[in-house]
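retry 2 of 3: previous attempt timed out while embedding 2-deoxy-2-amino glucitol-6-phosphate. Reduced batch size to 1 and resubmitted. Inputs unchanged:
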Amino acid sequence: MEYRGYDSAGVGILTNDGIRVIKSVGKVNDLTNVQDLNAISGHIGIGHTRWATHGKVNVENAHPHNSCHGEMSLVHNGIISNFQQIKKELENDGHKFKSDTDSEVIVHLFEKYFSSGNSIKSALLKTVNRLKGSFAFVIVLRDEEIIIGARYGSPLIIGLGNSGSYLTSDILGFIEFTDKAVFLENEEVVVLGKHQFEVSDFEGNMIAKHVTQVAWEFGTPTKEKYSHFTLKEILEQPLALRRVLSQDKEQVELFCKKLRSKPRVVITGSGTSFHAGLYAHHILKTLAKISSDVIISSELYPHDIDHNTSLLVLSQSGETADALKATRIARDAGCQVLSIVNVTGSSLARESDISLPLNCGPEVGVAATKSFTSQLALIYLISSRMGIGDDNMLADISQKVETVLRQAKKIERLISGYTDARDFYFIARSIHIPIALEGALKMKELSYVHAEGMAAGELKHGPLALITQGTPVVVINPMDDSYQDTLDNTIELKARGAKVIGISTVSNEVYDDFIPIPKVHPSLSPIIEVIPLQLLAYYAAVKAGQDPDYPRNLAKSVTVN
Ligand code: AGP
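retry 2 succeeded.
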């Protein structure tokens, strides 16, 4: 679970002497420096990797959190928005809190109900019905051979194995042991034993759950010979692009039919998926003559959509809280929800009317790379099936990407000339603008250098004032209708002293550094031109001594609003 949060970690293991809790700041490996976990015997345990929302990054705020006398221990993913009020009430009742987190109120609330004579299940139901916000939590009890849990918003999945059972935020948590999963829906609680489980809703009504066989083939991702998952996933893109095209023909046709079935299309996503949405907006219009609006998921409100709308949601993880919130707003408005997701069993895939998988394999590096180019390729495939595109043009796209990847070493040398940069600008026009935005996002999240992507035509309307001697600017400018205008903007930048990295199908003396890319159809060029930007950001991070896989303050799947 480390890629979902890595500022601190902890475990709670049920031993003969009670619940043994080990916590530390940093990654899971740091935890094992505190205590050799294998030296602790026990067959029931809970664990957590934290992405701090409430309370500083320190050992006290790391999970698990114990009840007052240590009879229960909790781990939680999400945000309890009414924690202050509940905390006050519990402190008045005499409960002692050891952390500044919102999460700790859950175990004390459960303790309050359980120690006042309620059964485990009724104490659990009373607890969940008091909480506001989002939560997936798990509690272990000193005197019980069970683990209990609840889901409201954040993901929670049961894994059923031969030698035991699991409750995790993501199938990756148990995929090496079993491929039998039971996905908890919202407002469900579970009591899990070694080989049996009971699920009910927040009213206590039992719910029959079916077991899903999840994709075993990807297994637990490893770095193999690569120094980082991010580099491995960048170099995996030719294979990922071949995989993304192996779509179920009928499912794609049905998806296209549904996308056309409503008079209005709204596209939404967060971060890199939002940038893929901007590409989708462009390509649906040019290839399929479908107009659409693109709205950042955290900015999608009920007034933006109605029952005449198809909402197309893009998400690698399928668990991004903002994307799920937008989906639920759409549902409430009677919209049809279509999604493109990489994690097939995810909440978004299950909450959509129809969902297409990216098939690009698990993406562990927090920075989205292969999932982004796979999103673009699948969007192109859908658009071309609905319009004038020719998906044969996708056939050799993975080879073209391979040719760009062969420049990795050169790009590593190139970025050495920019290690003092404190600001980076990325400019482009037309269908290439989402790539300028994506390049800037990669540079920000991987190298921690301020970066901004923008429409080249906007420079003269303000941003040009930022340019001084040596200011690094990356120009994405393959030969197409927008080429000359972008080149003119580049010359204006040079006149102000900018140091220009040109990414294009044709070289030009205006570039201080040049990264050639192969010529492809303009609609497909964004898939090619983003590759050098991923490598620039990756090598900038490595040269700055950052860990590209686990950028500070970020998480792979942002499950809180
Ligand atoms: C991209 O590199 C970031 N990890 C982040 O912006 C990400 O794209 C965003 O959080 C959306 O994630 P999703 O595609 O899993 O929904």
